[in-house]
Amino acid sequence: MADAWVVAAAGGSMLRVHVRPGAARPGLAGLHGGALAVRVGARPIDGAANREVLALLAAALGIGQTALEVISGAQGRNKRIRVHGLTPATVQAKLAQVLRV
């Protein structure tokens, strides 16, 4: 996996995510344009898609949702999400297991 989609940030890592709302099969979908592609079933109404993205990432990383924070892109498909307490190498390793890369 290329490492441009996850970088070091104060207190953890910053993850670039591309969201595909309204998916029939929610889950992590590999890389898309230098970002982690995440499919969610929820539509982007009242933050439902953002909540589902955080839940999917938390489960994949084995952390609580409170350790994740949408830093930018809350209203769009391209987001930056801060992962508190995990290094970029740890984030990559955990997501690679889920993505089987």
Biggest sheet details: 6 strands, mixed
CATH superfamily: YggU-like
Structural class: alpha+beta
Radius of gyration: 12 Å
CATH class bucket: Alpha Beta
Uncertain runs are none
N- and C-termini, Cα separation: 7 Å
Supply the number of structural domains: 1
CATH fold node name: Conserved Hypothetical Protein Mth637, Chain: A
Please tell me the CATH architecture by its name: 2-Layer Sandwich
SSE pattern, N- to C-terminal: EEEEHEEH
Share of residues in strands: 35-45%
Number of helices: 2
- The strand count comes to 6
- The residue-averaged pLDDT reads 91
Please give the share of residues in helix: 25-40%
In one word, what is the shape? globular
Q: Any chance you could write out the topology, listing elements then pairs?
A:
Blueprint: E1 6-9, E2 12-20, E3 27-32, E4 35-39, H1 48-61, E5 68-72, E6 78-84, H2 88-99
Parallel strand pairs: 2-4
Antiparallel strand pairs: 1-2, 2-6, 3-4, 5-6
Which key terms come to mind for this protein?
101 residues, 2 helices, alpha+beta, 6 strands
Overview of the structural elements:
It is a single chain. By secondary structure, this protein is α+β, with helices and mostly antiparallel strands. The protein has a single domain (6-99), classed as 2-Layer Sandwich (Conserved Hypothetical Protein Mth637, Chain: A), CATH 3.30.1200.10. Helices cover 26% and strands 36% of the residues. It has two helices and six strands. A hairpin with a 5-residue loop joins strand 5 (68-72) and strand 6 (78-84). The mean pLDDT is 91.
Provide a concise account of the structure shown:
Helices cover 26% and strands 36% of the residues. The chain has 101 residues and is α+β, with helices and mostly antiparallel strands.
